[in-house]
Amino acid sequence: MAEHILFLTGKLAEKQLRRTIEDMAPDFGYTVHVLGVTVAALMTADMIQRRLTDTFGADRILVPGRCRGDLEALSRHFGIPVERGPEELHDLPEFFGKVRQRPDLSRYELRIFAEIVEAPHIDVAAILRRAEEYRRDGADVIDLGCLPSTPFPHLADAVKALKSEGFLVSIDSLDSDNLLLAGRAGADYLLSLNEETLWIADEVASTPVLIATPHGDLHSLDRVIAKMTAKGRPFIVDPILDPIHFGFTDSIIRYHEVRRLHPDVEIMMGVGNLTELTHADTAGMNAMLLGICSELHVGQILATQVSKHACKAIKEADLARRIMLAARESNRLPKHINDGLMALHERAPFPLSVSEILELQAAIRDPSFRIMISAEGIHVFNRAGLWTDSDPFALFPHLGVENDGGHAFYLGVELARAQIAQALGKRYAQDQPLDWGIHGRTTEDPSVDPNCYAPQGTTLEASPSSPCPTPSNNQKT
């Protein structure tokens, strides 16, 4: 027998919900029930328990995604599962298509070496603080960067301190003395050894990262690989990723060739030469580079966060490696897995068309302003009418809040959010911060407990004399 689902909604969303379900041509039976609330987002678990007297023979109940409260308690009360649906009604078809097969992003294969570039210039305590930050963002190995002709007198102390705190540690230097000192202090990896310095691997237990001399010479790389293989020692190979216009394309080919010639060796890619040296948002670069790593089974990257525009590179790489592994293992494109790397744009920024927004406005019976966006602009409406423009300043004369500073401030904040979202192609929901993916508040933030009621939002209650009071917390259509 087909499953029967009870959808709970508000008065304003009922018609749209029915149309959305019908368009899905569902393989389940359903009942749409208006709970006696105008705005679905204002529904709470307590309200449902008080007002819902009939479950209409349903096998489970689906409540709006922004419904707060203890749904497990509701499930026990009604004797059937009570679940949250998507936050946006237009995401309902995707919700039913993917909710039972969400990719597992808890796993990854690629290791992130996070370099503290200025390590010689900061003390051990500062190195430990930076290492903790990098570990929180997803780093697996803390790399201490050495600078040419720059003393690093506390190198051994830094390595020992990091090891005592449970970190894996690498040292990044071409100076033999630094490499030996770090290896003897307990460093796990040495970046980097070549044909001339390969002898260091015999002096310490650290795993070496091998590079070619001269740069790009694959024959040199082949020789050091052969020597380390003969020793029976673990090692990693770094063919070196070059910046754009300084050998970038050739270096990508070089990675491919190393993998072809050596199908089983461990490989590292230093992605900082792209993320640091290209003035473009790094989330996309990290996704592309870690896609290459996934195809070539590159097991390590060296990431840096030196330039201000690359300040989230480690966090981006951490999410990218999880997405790429999930995509590869399920033999699918890296689409519809996680939107955390889409900071500027979104897959479906405008869930409602202008005609649908007009329908909503026609159903409004109160003076509270609603704000929505579409491809055509920003829409502000209440029972008195609907006004549309891409410029918030053009909308202000219609709001009637010249003598209500608090209300004007609230609407100004919301219209600014709406303008940014409409210009970039992002989702906008009144009284909600914009979603900047992993760079800000995310829809999948594990720290947000949907069983707890949301704190009071940014909406300001209107003064008694206000001609158009604002919605209460999180009110939206």
TrEMBL record:
Residue numbers spanned by region Disordered: 437-477
Superkingdom, taxonomy of origin: Bacteria
InterPro entries associated with the record: Dihydropteroate_synth-like_sf, DUF6513, Pterin-binding_dom
Every Pterin-binding domain range: 93-335
Pfam entry (one): DUF6513
SUPFAM superfamilies registered for this protein in UniProt: Dihydropteroate synthetase-like
Protein name (Swiss-Prot/TrEMBL): DUF6513 domain-containing protein
Species annotation: Methylomonas rapida
